[in-house]
Design a protein that fits this description.
By secondary structure, this protein is an alpha/beta fold. Helices cover about 35% and strands about 20% of the residues. Strand 12 and strand 13 form a beta hairpin.
Protein backbone atom coordinates (compact mmCIF):
# COMPACT_ATOMS: atom_id res chain seq x y z
CA UNK A 1 0.00 0.00 0.00
CA UNK A 2 1.54 3.30 -1.08
CA UNK A 3 0.48 6.36 0.90
CA UNK A 4 2.18 9.73 1.18
CA UNK A 5 3.51 10.36 4.69
CA UNK A 6 1.21 12.49 6.83
CA UNK A 7 -1.90 11.79 4.77
CA UNK A 8 -4.74 9.31 5.17
CA UNK A 9 -6.77 9.24 1.96
CA UNK A 10 -8.79 11.52 -0.33
CA UNK A 11 -12.19 12.58 0.97
CA UNK A 12 -13.93 10.55 -1.74
CA UNK A 13 -12.09 7.43 -0.60
CA UNK A 14 -13.03 8.15 3.02
CA UNK A 15 -16.65 8.46 1.93
CA UNK A 16 -16.59 4.99 0.37
CA UNK A 17 -14.89 3.54 3.44
CA UNK A 18 -17.52 5.09 5.71
CA UNK A 19 -20.40 3.87 3.55
CA UNK A 20 -21.42 7.42 2.73
CA UNK A 21 -21.99 9.83 -0.14
CA UNK A 22 -19.27 12.23 -1.27
CA UNK A 23 -20.36 15.84 -1.79
CA UNK A 24 -17.93 18.49 -3.04
CA UNK A 25 -18.95 22.13 -3.43
CA UNK A 26 -15.60 23.11 -4.93
CA UNK A 27 -15.22 20.22 -7.36
CA UNK A 28 -12.16 19.17 -5.34
CA UNK A 29 -11.11 16.00 -3.56
CA UNK A 30 -8.34 16.88 -1.08
CA UNK A 31 -6.37 14.41 0.99
CA UNK A 32 -7.36 14.13 4.65
CA UNK A 33 -4.37 14.81 6.90
CA UNK A 34 -6.03 14.51 10.33
CA UNK A 35 -9.29 13.46 11.96
CA UNK A 36 -11.09 15.18 14.82
CA UNK A 37 -14.39 14.90 16.68
CA UNK A 38 -13.85 18.25 18.41
CA UNK A 39 -14.09 21.39 16.27
CA UNK A 40 -11.65 23.12 18.64
CA UNK A 41 -8.87 20.69 17.68
CA UNK A 42 -9.45 20.65 13.93
CA UNK A 43 -6.33 21.44 11.90
CA UNK A 44 -5.83 22.52 8.32
CA UNK A 45 -6.72 19.71 5.93
CA UNK A 46 -8.52 17.74 8.62
CA UNK A 47 -11.77 15.78 8.62
CA UNK A 48 -14.29 16.86 11.25
CA UNK A 49 -16.75 14.16 12.32
CA UNK A 50 -19.97 15.67 13.66
CA UNK A 51 -21.03 13.26 16.39
CA UNK A 52 -24.33 13.59 18.21
CA UNK A 53 -23.30 13.30 21.85
CA UNK A 54 -25.13 13.27 25.16
CA UNK A 55 -24.26 16.90 25.89
CA UNK A 56 -24.14 18.53 22.47
CA UNK A 57 -24.54 17.83 18.76
CA UNK A 58 -21.36 18.12 16.72
CA UNK A 59 -23.38 19.32 13.74
CA UNK A 60 -23.64 22.70 15.49
CA UNK A 61 -19.91 23.17 15.00
CA UNK A 62 -19.50 22.38 11.28
CA UNK A 63 -19.01 26.05 10.39
CA UNK A 64 -16.43 26.42 13.15
CA UNK A 65 -14.55 23.36 11.88
CA UNK A 66 -14.38 24.73 8.33
CA UNK A 67 -13.27 28.12 9.66
CA UNK A 68 -10.42 26.31 11.45
CA UNK A 69 -9.24 24.82 8.17
CA UNK A 70 -11.08 21.52 7.89
CA UNK A 71 -11.17 20.21 4.34
CA UNK A 72 -14.19 17.98 4.99
CA UNK A 73 -16.90 17.10 7.48
CA UNK A 74 -18.77 13.85 8.07
CA UNK A 75 -22.42 14.63 8.72
CA UNK A 76 -25.67 12.71 9.03
CA UNK A 77 -28.03 12.38 6.08
CA UNK A 78 -30.86 13.68 8.28
CA UNK A 79 -28.96 16.88 8.98
CA UNK A 80 -27.88 17.27 5.34
CA UNK A 81 -31.47 16.98 4.14
CA UNK A 82 -32.45 19.93 6.30
CA UNK A 83 -29.38 22.08 5.77
CA UNK A 84 -27.95 21.20 2.35
CA UNK A 85 -27.91 24.87 1.36
CA UNK A 86 -25.93 25.93 4.45
CA UNK A 87 -23.31 28.39 3.27
CA UNK A 88 -20.61 26.80 5.47
CA UNK A 89 -20.70 23.67 3.31
CA UNK A 90 -19.21 25.64 0.44
CA UNK A 91 -15.93 25.83 2.37
CA UNK A 92 -15.15 22.15 1.96
CA UNK A 93 -16.31 18.63 1.14
CA UNK A 94 -18.89 16.50 2.88
CA UNK A 95 -19.21 12.82 3.70
CA UNK A 96 -22.91 12.19 4.20
CA UNK A 97 -23.75 9.04 6.18
CA UNK A 98 -26.85 7.71 7.87
CA UNK A 99 -25.21 7.81 11.31
CA UNK A 100 -21.91 9.59 11.95
CA UNK A 101 -20.74 7.31 14.77
CA UNK A 102 -21.33 4.21 12.65
CA UNK A 103 -19.66 5.91 9.70
CA UNK A 104 -16.65 6.77 11.87
CA UNK A 105 -16.42 3.14 13.01
CA UNK A 106 -16.49 1.89 9.42
CA UNK A 107 -13.83 4.41 8.41
CA UNK A 108 -11.57 3.39 11.30
CA UNK A 109 -12.12 -0.34 10.67
CA UNK A 110 -11.13 0.09 7.04
CA UNK A 111 -7.94 1.85 8.16
CA UNK A 112 -7.06 -1.06 10.48
CA UNK A 113 -7.74 -3.52 7.63
CA UNK A 114 -5.11 -1.72 5.52
CA UNK A 115 -2.42 -3.03 7.86
CA UNK A 116 -2.77 -6.79 7.48
CA UNK A 117 0.65 -7.54 8.99
CA UNK A 118 -0.10 -5.73 12.25
CA UNK A 119 -0.41 -8.01 15.29
CA UNK A 120 -3.58 -6.79 16.99
CA UNK A 121 -3.87 -7.01 20.77
CA UNK A 122 -6.87 -5.78 22.80
CA UNK A 123 -7.20 -5.33 26.56
CA UNK A 124 -10.36 -4.90 28.61
CA UNK A 125 -11.47 -5.37 32.21
CA UNK A 126 -13.19 -3.56 35.03
CA UNK A 127 -9.90 -2.43 36.57
CA UNK A 128 -6.29 -2.27 35.39
CA UNK A 129 -6.79 -2.18 31.62
CA UNK A 130 -4.88 1.07 31.06
CA UNK A 131 -1.92 -0.07 33.13
CA UNK A 132 -1.92 -3.51 31.50
CA UNK A 133 -2.09 -1.92 28.04
CA UNK A 134 0.93 0.23 28.93
CA UNK A 135 2.83 -2.82 30.22
CA UNK A 136 2.14 -4.93 27.13
CA UNK A 137 2.94 -2.00 24.89
CA UNK A 138 6.25 -1.41 26.63
CA UNK A 139 7.22 -5.08 26.34
CA UNK A 140 6.27 -5.40 22.68
CA UNK A 141 8.12 -2.16 21.88
CA UNK A 142 11.30 -4.04 22.82
CA UNK A 143 10.59 -6.36 19.89
CA UNK A 144 9.24 -3.95 17.27
CA UNK A 145 7.48 -0.66 16.65
CA UNK A 146 4.27 -0.58 18.72
CA UNK A 147 1.23 1.70 18.77
CA UNK A 148 -1.13 2.00 21.76
CA UNK A 149 -4.07 4.19 22.85
CA UNK A 150 -2.99 7.52 24.22
CA UNK A 151 -4.45 8.18 27.64
CA UNK A 152 -7.98 6.86 28.03
CA UNK A 153 -9.09 6.98 24.38
CA UNK A 154 -10.75 3.58 24.71
CA UNK A 155 -14.47 4.20 24.12
CA UNK A 156 -16.70 4.02 21.06
CA UNK A 157 -15.42 7.49 20.12
CA UNK A 158 -11.90 7.24 21.54
CA UNK A 159 -10.92 3.87 20.05
CA UNK A 160 -11.55 4.82 16.41
CA UNK A 161 -9.50 7.97 16.95
CA UNK A 162 -6.72 5.85 18.46
CA UNK A 163 -6.52 3.27 15.68
CA UNK A 164 -6.13 6.03 13.11
CA UNK A 165 -2.64 6.35 14.61
CA UNK A 166 -1.59 3.00 13.13
CA UNK A 167 1.20 3.37 10.55
CA UNK A 168 2.96 0.99 8.20
CA UNK A 169 6.06 0.79 10.43
CA UNK A 170 4.08 -0.64 13.35
CA UNK A 171 4.55 -4.31 14.09
CA UNK A 172 2.17 -4.41 17.07
CA UNK A 173 -1.02 -2.56 17.97
CA UNK A 174 -2.16 -2.70 21.61
CA UNK A 175 -5.50 -1.04 22.33
CA UNK A 176 -7.59 -1.02 25.48
CA UNK A 177 -11.36 -1.18 25.15
CA UNK A 178 -13.59 0.40 27.77
CA UNK A 179 -17.34 -0.03 28.00
CA UNK A 180 -20.08 1.62 30.07
CA UNK A 181 -23.25 0.52 28.30
CA UNK A 182 -24.59 -2.63 26.63
CA UNK A 183 -23.54 -3.17 23.02
CA UNK A 184 -20.44 -1.00 23.18
CA UNK A 185 -17.90 -3.85 23.08
CA UNK A 186 -19.35 -5.28 19.88
CA UNK A 187 -18.90 -1.86 18.27
CA UNK A 188 -15.30 -1.66 19.50
CA UNK A 189 -14.28 -5.08 18.18
CA UNK A 190 -15.87 -4.23 14.84
CA UNK A 191 -13.35 -1.38 14.63
CA UNK A 192 -10.20 -3.22 15.71
CA UNK A 193 -10.94 -6.96 15.30
CA UNK A 194 -8.27 -8.21 17.74
CA UNK A 195 -6.32 -11.42 17.21
CA UNK A 196 -5.32 -11.57 20.88
CA UNK A 197 -7.54 -10.27 23.68
CA UNK A 198 -6.90 -10.09 27.42
CA UNK A 199 -9.40 -9.52 30.22
CA UNK A 200 -7.93 -8.20 33.49
CA UNK A 201 -10.99 -8.92 35.67
CA UNK A 202 -14.76 -8.71 35.92
CA UNK A 203 -15.71 -6.25 38.63
CA UNK A 204 -18.41 -3.74 39.46
CA UNK A 205 -17.27 -0.67 37.51
CA UNK A 206 -20.22 0.83 35.56
CA UNK A 207 -22.62 -1.64 37.18
CA UNK A 208 -25.27 1.11 37.17
CA UNK A 209 -25.74 1.43 33.40
CA UNK A 210 -24.85 -2.23 32.85
CA UNK A 211 -27.37 -3.60 35.37
CA UNK A 212 -25.49 -6.52 36.91
CA UNK A 213 -22.09 -8.16 37.17
CA UNK A 214 -23.28 -10.92 34.87
CA UNK A 215 -24.15 -8.29 32.28
CA UNK A 216 -20.65 -6.84 32.68
CA UNK A 217 -19.13 -10.31 32.17
CA UNK A 218 -21.27 -10.84 29.08
CA UNK A 219 -20.31 -7.46 27.63
CA UNK A 220 -16.59 -7.90 28.35
CA UNK A 221 -16.69 -11.38 26.78
CA UNK A 222 -17.80 -9.77 23.52
CA UNK A 223 -14.14 -8.90 23.05
CA UNK A 224 -13.80 -12.49 21.79
CA UNK A 225 -16.85 -12.31 19.52
CA UNK A 226 -14.97 -12.13 16.20
CA UNK A 227 -12.45 -14.83 17.13
CA UNK A 228 -11.76 -17.94 15.10
CA UNK A 229 -9.71 -20.99 16.08
CA UNK A 230 -6.43 -19.14 15.47
CA UNK A 231 -7.17 -16.34 17.94
CA UNK A 232 -6.35 -16.42 21.64
CA UNK A 233 -8.07 -15.04 24.71
CA UNK A 234 -6.26 -14.49 28.03
CA UNK A 235 -8.35 -14.94 31.17
CA UNK A 236 -7.39 -14.41 34.85
CA UNK A 237 -7.37 -17.78 36.58
CA UNK A 238 -8.62 -16.44 39.93
CA UNK A 239 -11.61 -14.53 38.58
CA UNK A 240 -15.03 -15.89 39.55
CA UNK A 241 -16.16 -15.32 35.93
CA UNK A 242 -13.24 -17.18 34.34
CA UNK A 243 -15.29 -20.24 33.35
CA UNK A 244 -18.02 -18.02 31.93
CA UNK A 245 -15.53 -16.09 29.80
CA UNK A 246 -13.87 -19.26 28.57
CA UNK A 247 -17.18 -20.71 27.36
CA UNK A 248 -17.79 -17.47 25.44
CA UNK A 249 -14.45 -17.49 23.64
CA UNK A 250 -14.61 -19.23 20.22
CA UNK A 251 -10.81 -19.32 19.96
CA UNK A 252 -8.08 -20.69 22.18
CA UNK A 253 -7.85 -19.58 25.81
CA UNK A 254 -4.89 -19.20 28.14
CA UNK A 255 -5.42 -18.66 31.85
CA UNK A 256 -2.86 -16.54 33.63
CA UNK A 257 -1.94 -15.92 37.25
CA UNK A 258 0.84 -16.21 39.80
CA UNK A 259 0.38 -19.98 39.94
CA UNK A 260 -0.47 -20.64 36.30
CA UNK A 261 1.69 -18.39 34.11
CA UNK A 262 4.63 -20.43 32.90
CA UNK A 263 8.00 -19.19 34.12
CA UNK A 264 6.71 -17.01 36.95
CA UNK A 265 8.32 -18.50 40.04
CA UNK A 266 7.85 -16.04 42.91
CA UNK A 267 6.99 -12.42 43.58
CA UNK A 268 8.27 -10.41 46.53
CA UNK A 269 6.28 -7.43 47.79
CA UNK A 270 8.56 -4.39 48.17
CA UNK A 271 5.81 -2.18 49.56
CA UNK A 272 6.02 1.37 48.23
CA UNK A 273 8.87 0.31 45.93
CA UNK A 274 6.73 -2.17 43.99
CA UNK A 275 7.56 -5.82 43.31
CA UNK A 276 10.45 -8.15 42.61
CA UNK A 277 9.22 -10.83 40.20
CA UNK A 278 11.22 -14.01 39.66
CA UNK A 279 10.67 -15.01 36.03
CA UNK A 280 12.65 -17.68 34.16
CA UNK A 281 15.83 -17.10 36.18
CA UNK A 282 15.50 -13.34 35.84
CA UNK A 283 14.59 -10.71 38.43
CA UNK A 284 12.07 -8.14 37.22
CA UNK A 285 11.88 -5.00 39.36
CA UNK A 286 8.39 -3.59 38.88
CA UNK A 287 7.92 -0.01 40.14
CA UNK A 288 4.14 -0.30 40.45
CA UNK A 289 2.62 -1.11 43.84
CA UNK A 290 -0.12 -3.43 45.02
CA UNK A 291 -1.37 -6.92 44.27
CA UNK A 292 -3.51 -5.52 41.45
CA UNK A 293 -0.43 -4.29 39.61
CA UNK A 294 1.35 -7.59 40.16
CA UNK A 295 -1.66 -9.24 38.50
CA UNK A 296 -1.41 -6.77 35.61
CA UNK A 297 2.28 -7.57 35.18
CA UNK A 298 1.66 -11.32 35.15
CA UNK A 299 -1.10 -10.83 32.58
CA UNK A 300 1.35 -8.91 30.42
CA UNK A 301 4.00 -11.59 30.82
CA UNK A 302 1.54 -14.30 29.82
CA UNK A 303 0.38 -12.55 26.65
CA UNK A 304 3.85 -11.40 25.61
CA UNK A 305 5.30 -14.86 26.11
CA UNK A 306 2.52 -16.33 23.95
CA UNK A 307 3.56 -13.90 21.21
CA UNK A 308 7.09 -15.28 21.37
CA UNK A 309 8.73 -12.40 23.23
CA UNK A 310 11.91 -13.57 24.96
CA UNK A 311 12.30 -13.15 28.76
CA UNK A 312 15.02 -10.47 28.50
CA UNK A 313 12.69 -8.23 26.47
CA UNK A 314 9.82 -8.86 28.88
CA UNK A 315 12.05 -7.79 31.77
CA UNK A 316 13.24 -4.64 29.97
CA UNK A 317 9.73 -3.65 28.99
CA UNK A 318 8.24 -4.08 32.47
CA UNK A 319 11.10 -2.29 34.18
CA UNK A 320 10.56 0.79 31.99
CA UNK A 321 6.98 1.20 33.23
CA UNK A 322 6.31 4.15 35.52
CA UNK A 323 3.07 4.60 37.50
CA UNK A 324 0.34 6.33 35.50
CA UNK A 325 -0.83 9.60 37.01
CA UNK A 326 -3.70 9.01 39.40
CA UNK A 327 -3.34 5.22 39.34
CA UNK A 328 -1.67 4.04 42.56
CA UNK A 329 0.99 6.71 42.04
CA UNK A 330 3.35 7.19 45.00
CA UNK A 331 4.42 10.77 45.79
CA UNK A 332 6.97 10.98 48.60
CA UNK A 333 8.13 13.88 50.76
CA UNK A 334 7.21 15.11 54.24
CA UNK A 335 4.07 13.05 53.67
CA UNK A 336 3.56 10.04 51.42
CA UNK A 337 0.63 10.24 49.04
CA UNK A 338 -0.98 7.29 47.32
CA UNK A 339 -2.58 9.16 44.41
CA UNK A 340 -5.28 6.80 43.16
CA UNK A 341 -7.89 9.35 42.14
CA UNK A 342 -8.33 8.39 38.48
CA UNK A 343 -11.27 6.09 39.17
CA UNK A 344 -12.93 4.07 41.88
CA UNK A 345 -15.31 1.22 42.56
CA UNK A 346 -15.68 -1.20 45.44
CA UNK A 347 -13.23 -3.68 43.91
CA UNK A 348 -10.43 -1.17 43.41
CA UNK A 349 -11.08 0.26 46.90
CA UNK A 350 -10.61 -3.22 48.35
CA UNK A 351 -7.36 -3.66 46.42
CA UNK A 352 -5.79 -0.44 47.63
CA UNK A 353 -6.98 -1.02 51.21
CA UNK A 354 -5.28 -4.42 51.12
CA UNK A 355 -2.07 -2.81 49.89
CA UNK A 356 -2.11 -0.34 52.80
CA UNK A 357 -2.90 -3.15 55.26
CA UNK A 358 0.14 -5.08 54.07
CA UNK A 359 2.46 -2.07 54.44
CA UNK A 360 4.79 -1.76 57.41
CA UNK A 361 4.03 1.87 58.22
CA UNK A 362 5.09 3.63 61.42
CA UNK A 363 3.27 6.92 60.87
CA UNK A 364 -0.37 7.86 60.75
CA UNK A 365 -2.67 6.73 57.96
CA UNK A 366 -5.33 9.03 56.50
CA UNK A 367 -7.94 7.97 53.95
CA UNK A 368 -9.54 10.58 51.68
CA UNK A 369 -12.32 8.77 49.83
CA UNK A 370 -14.47 10.35 47.13
CA UNK A 371 -17.82 9.15 45.84
CA UNK A 372 -17.96 6.26 43.37
CA UNK A 373 -20.07 7.02 40.31
CA UNK A 374 -22.09 4.96 37.79
CA UNK A 375 -23.23 2.41 40.37
CA UNK A 376 -26.97 2.85 39.86
CA UNK A 377 -29.15 0.86 42.23
CA UNK A 378 -26.01 -0.70 43.76
CA UNK A 379 -24.69 2.68 44.98
CA UNK A 380 -25.93 2.51 48.57
CA UNK A 381 -24.74 -1.06 49.06
CA UNK A 382 -21.34 -0.41 47.45
CA UNK A 383 -20.68 2.74 49.45
CA UNK A 384 -21.67 0.99 52.66
CA UNK A 385 -19.28 -1.81 51.78
CA UNK A 386 -16.46 0.69 51.26
CA UNK A 387 -17.27 2.24 54.62
CA UNK A 388 -17.11 -1.15 56.33
CA UNK A 389 -13.79 -1.98 54.64
CA UNK A 390 -12.34 1.42 55.56
CA UNK A 391 -13.32 0.92 59.21
CA UNK A 392 -11.71 -2.54 59.24
CA UNK A 393 -8.47 -1.03 57.94
CA UNK A 394 -8.54 1.14 61.10
CA UNK A 395 -6.73 4.24 59.83
CA UNK A 396 -6.18 7.26 62.06
CA UNK A 397 -8.61 9.46 60.16
CA UNK A 398 -11.14 9.05 57.35
CA UNK A 399 -12.32 11.94 55.18
CA UNK A 400 -15.39 11.13 53.07
CA UNK A 401 -16.14 13.46 50.16
CA UNK A 402 -19.30 13.60 48.08
CA UNK A 403 -23.01 12.98 48.54
CA UNK A 404 -22.85 9.22 47.92
CA UNK A 405 -20.22 8.81 50.63
CA UNK A 406 -22.86 9.50 53.27
CA UNK A 407 -23.70 5.80 53.09
CA UNK A 408 -20.08 4.93 53.80
CA UNK A 409 -20.23 7.33 56.74
CA UNK A 410 -23.32 5.58 58.14
CA UNK A 411 -21.60 2.18 57.83
CA UNK A 412 -18.51 3.47 59.65
CA UNK A 413 -20.65 4.96 62.43
CA UNK A 414 -22.30 1.57 62.89
CA UNK A 415 -18.92 -0.20 63.14
CA UNK A 416 -16.42 -0.49 65.98
CA UNK A 417 -14.14 2.12 64.40
CA UNK A 418 -12.95 4.62 67.03
CA UNK A 419 -10.86 6.98 64.91
CA UNK A 420 -11.90 10.29 63.40
CA UNK A 421 -14.35 10.25 60.47
CA UNK A 422 -15.67 13.30 58.64
CA UNK A 423 -18.20 13.51 55.80
CA UNK A 424 -17.82 16.61 53.60
CA UNK A 425 -19.72 17.90 50.56
CA UNK A 426 -17.66 21.01 49.80
CA UNK A 427 -14.26 20.52 48.16
CA UNK A 428 -12.64 23.64 49.60
CA UNK A 429 -13.65 22.60 53.10
CA UNK A 430 -12.19 19.15 52.44
CA UNK A 431 -8.93 20.66 51.22
CA UNK A 432 -8.63 22.93 54.25
CA UNK A 433 -9.36 20.13 56.72
CA UNK A 434 -6.91 17.70 55.13
CA UNK A 435 -4.07 20.22 54.80
CA UNK A 436 -4.55 21.45 58.36
CA UNK A 437 -4.50 17.91 59.74
CA UNK A 438 -1.30 16.67 58.12
CA UNK A 439 1.82 15.96 60.15
CA UNK A 440 5.21 14.75 58.99
CA UNK A 441 5.28 11.02 58.28
CA UNK A 442 1.60 10.69 57.34
CA UNK A 443 0.49 8.24 54.67
CA UNK A 444 -2.43 9.74 52.71
CA UNK A 445 -4.63 7.78 50.31
CA UNK A 446 -6.61 9.79 47.74
CA UNK A 447 -9.20 7.57 46.08
CA UNK A 448 -12.45 8.36 44.28
CA UNK A 449 -14.14 8.56 40.91
CA UNK A 450 -12.51 10.90 38.42
CA UNK A 451 -15.39 13.36 38.57
CA UNK A 452 -14.57 14.00 42.25
CA UNK A 453 -11.24 15.47 41.09
CA UNK A 454 -9.22 14.45 44.12
CA UNK A 455 -6.14 15.06 41.98
CA UNK A 456 -6.62 18.70 43.04
CA UNK A 457 -5.86 17.68 46.60
CA UNK A 458 -2.79 15.74 45.48
CA UNK A 459 -1.50 18.90 43.84
CA UNK A 460 -2.07 20.98 46.97
CA UNK A 461 -0.33 18.47 49.25
CA UNK A 462 2.52 18.25 46.74
CA UNK A 463 2.89 22.04 46.85
CA UNK A 464 3.31 21.82 50.62
CA UNK A 465 6.08 19.30 50.09
CA UNK A 466 7.65 21.22 47.22
CA UNK A 467 7.31 18.26 44.87
CA UNK A 468 4.52 19.44 42.53
CA UNK A 469 5.00 17.90 39.11
CA UNK A 470 6.36 14.59 40.40
Amino acid sequence: MNREAGKFFPVSDASVRAGGTFVSYKNSDPDIVSISIDSRTVSSGGLFIALNGEITDGHKYISSAFESGASAAMISSKYYAKHYNNVSFFNGCLIVVEDTLSGFHKLAASWVADFGKLTRVAVTGSNGKSTTKEMIGSILAEDGSTVINKGNLNSETGLPLSVMGIKKEHKYGVFEMGINHPGEMKALVSVFSPQFALVTNIGTAHIGPMGSQEAIAAEKSEIFSLFDKDNTGFIPDNDSWADYMETHCPGKTIRYGLNSTEGVEKAFNLGLKGWNIQYKNLEINLKLVGQHNLNNAIASISLSSALGIIPDKIKKGLEKIEPLKGRSQIIEGLYTIIEDSYNANADSMKEIFQFISDLEWDGRVALVLGSMKELGDESVQMHRLVGTMAAELNPDVIFLFGLEMRDAYFAIQESDYSGQVVHILDYQKLENLVLDSLIEGDLVLLKGSRTMELNRLADEISKLMGVLGV
